[in-house]
Amino acid sequence: MTKPLRHVFVCTQQRPPNHPRGSCASAGAPPILQAFWAEQQKRQAYEKIAITYSGCLGPCDGGPNVLVYPDNVLYRGVGLADVAEIFDKHLEGGEVVERLRADAAVW
Ligand code: FES
Question: How far is the CA of 100 from the centre of ligand 1 (A)?
Fold first, then answer.
């Protein structure tokens, strides 16, 4: 396996209904994870971009949350329409998508 250029963690944590912290799964994370994998496949980006689902990343209230390493960038409220942009600009282009980036107080 080649060491990836960037590693994306998509929180798919699920919690019981009405749990006070909510969860990224209840905010729609599973289709977001599928969209990241589909984009990776479409671009044949397996060698440079790794996509992994994760448990809770911490700031649950703004999910779906997506963390990108080694850049240490947390995206919040990621929607399906944002996935291709994150790939284009950040994962392949190296430019953070600022409008989705978590505030410094959060991450
Ligand atoms: S449930 Fe996704 S960050 Fe906590």
Answer: 16
Centre of ligand 1 to C-alpha 38, Å, is 22
| Both structure tokens of 106 | 């959060």
Residues with CB under 6 A from ligand 1: 11, 13, 23-24, 56-60, 63, 65
pLDDT in 10s for each residue of the chain, 107 residues: 789 999 999 999 999 989 999 999 999 999 999 999 999 999 999 999 999 999 999 999 999 999 999 999 999 999 999 999 999 999 999 999 999 999 999 99
Kind of pairing between the strands at 73-75 and 49-54: unpaired
Secondary structure of residue 99 in the 3-state scheme: helix
Yes or no: say if 11 and 54 are a contact pair by the CB < 8 Å rule: yes
Whole-prediction pTM value?
Answer: 0.96
List, in order of start, the domains of the chain with CATH numbers: 1-58 (3.40.30.10)
